[in-house]
Amino acid sequence: MTMTMQTETLLARAAEMISAGRTGAARPVLAAARDMLAPAPRLAELFALLEMRDGNDEAARVELDRGVAVAPEHAGLRKLRAELRMRMQDLTGALDDAAASVIQDARDPVAKALLGALLLEAGQPADALICLREAVATQPNHAGFCQAMAAAQEALGQPEQAAETLATAIKLAPGSLALRNAAMLLAIRQRAFERAVAVAEAARRDGTANASIFVLLGHARANMGQHDAAAASYQEALKLSPDDPAVRQVAAAAGILPGVARAPADYVRTLFDDYAPRFEGHLVGLGDRVPGLIRAALLRHRPALRPAPDEGASSGPICGPVLDLGCGTGLMATVLGDLRLHDLVGVDLSDRMLDVARAKDVYAELHAAEICAFLAGEKRNFALILAADVLCYFGALEDPLARIAARLAPGGLCIASLEEIFLDAAAPAEGLSMDGDVEWVLGRQGRYAHRADYVAQCALQAGLTLREVMPETLRQEGDGALGGLVVVLERSAT
After folding, report:
1. What band does 261 get if pLDDT is binned at 50, 70 and 90?
2. Which of the chain's termini has less CB crowding within 10 Å, N or C?
3. What is the mean pLDDT of residues 18-47?
4. What is the predicted pLDDT for the residue at 281?
5. DSSP 8-class letter at 478
6. Which residues pair with 485 in a beta bridge?
7. pLDDT tens, position by position, 354-390
8. DSSP3 helix / strand / coil % (the chain, rounded to 5)
9. Residue 235 CB-half CA count within 13 A
10. What is the residue-wise DSSP string for 411-473?
11. Among candidate residues 184, 185, 178, 152, the one with its CA nearest the CA of residue 275
């Protein structure tokens, strides 16, 4: 066997091992090939794939940088480095590599689709759509290409065309669950609930419905007021994925499982990782009032935090450190940015939400953690603790409020928003009208609502004084106002 045949055999064997996830076995094979070969694009590509599979993104970048330096016009290396850079959140670099790969091989639909997806991520949906249309024209049954094209159409305000793109793609690739999920989500966002139901029923007939399809079917039916049918859909989802935390949460919300005392951490993390790119825009669209309500409550109780008209926030910060629980993308820190606060610490379960917050450069520290675990391990006391739209993921409040109290400095404040249980027939459209003995309840949106007197009871038990409880409209949700509470709690100064 010639040297060329030997190395080709080694590279082919390594590629098979990497594809099968056997990276430990592939590594010495590639090392042997490297000893036999001069630097080559295929070798760099396989080493990079190996490191990416093992989660070593920086090592993969080094391999690809070397490979591109040797073969700058190699389209495959450019494509792979674009994917890696996108994963490493280097959007500018990823766009450069994707564009180069299209220039080097204008007939490659994968390169065009990759460039289109990156342009969409960069907020250039019109240019993205041009690339994605060309990719789809070449491979009309490619689920990923079609899904990205529909996303670009929706971003351009063309939801009907997006729906048609997905419907055509489903006919060509009926086994793609991703396409059916995308079609249902698009329909639900458009409030075209009957269309979402039709997509789900077609998936059921075709034998391709999974737990996600049934969860989305439940959401569509609930929005149509068909709550018994929605519960039946959630039951189907639970049968298919009995251990999935998101499925269990919606099943509990529908009354299929007994109410649990808090949302599972995995459920919340996944929910907000997926939600991060559109989180702030969505809240603005709902008329979210929570950050402003918490700011107003803070200034009612600590008016000295407001700078004088001729002063800035830097004119002597007098309150800190500040802990923002469930800080998300940093909305609260932004709203409070002109006040005399210092040393803001943000905590959230979602890495993607924290990435957005980090880019704003408004926090002294950011921590990816479950909030009760963070509070239990933290040694500092905080002059102010904020909990905006985070206690709605807890049913029982005794534990989180006790942990908050333990980390408040003497005389410190905690200001929180909660969703409220209403005890009369005049409850807002999205409120929960319940029996007077119920302290908290898991609603159909997967969040918890509480009674005001239960919140007061838990605060007292935690050693906190309830300084204020204000019934407020938090935002619009569904077809009505979401009623809630803004509470101000204080730890005794002694």
Report:
1. low
2. C
3. 83
4. 61
5. T
6. 418, 471
7. 998 998 899 999 999 999 999 999 999 999 999 999 9
8. 55, 15, 30
9. 8
10. EEEEEEEEEEEE-STT--TTSEE--TT--EEE-TTS-EEE-HHHHHHHHHHTTEEEEEEEEEE
11. 185
**Alpha helices (runs of H) in 207-226, residue ranges in sequence order:** 211-223
pLDDT digits (tens, 9 = 90+) for 174-202: 999 999 999 998 998 888 889 999 999 99
**Measured between alpha carbons, how far is 76 from 485 in angstroms, rounded to an integer?**
55
Identity of the residue numbered 444: R
Lowest mean pLDDT among 81-95, 152-166, 417-431, 450-464: 417-431
Query: How far is Cα 363 from Cα 91, in angstroms, rounded to an integer?
Result: 23
Q: How many CB atoms lie within 10 A of CB 39?
A: 12
Tell me how far apart the alpha carbons of residues 246 and 256 are, in angstroms, rounded to a whole number: 14
Is the separation of the CB atoms in 352 and 276 below 8 Å?
yes
Task: Report d(CA 479, CA 392) in Å as an integer.
Answer: 20
Structural domains of the chain, ranges and CATH numbers in brackets:
174-258 (1.25.40.10), 270-491 (3.40.50.150)
User: 432 pLDDT exceeds 60?
Assistant: no
Q: Say if residues 253 and 263 touch (Cβ distance below 8 Å).
A: no
CA geometry: angle 391, 392, 393, nearest 5 deg: 85
The conformation of residue 11, written as its DSSP 8-state character, comes to H
Q: Which residue has the higher pLDDT, 166 or 255?
A: 166
Classify residue 254 by burial, with Cβ atoms within 10 Å: 0-12, 13-18, 19+: buried
Q: Are 443 and 429 in contact (CB under 8 A)?
A: no
3 vs 291, higher pLDDT: 291
Tell me, what's the pLDDT at 308? 61
Do 48 and 21 touch, CB atoms closer than 8 A? Answer: no
| C-alpha distances out from residue 419 to 33, 290, 296, 357, 443, Å | 62, 11, 18, 24, 10
pTM for this structure? 0.61
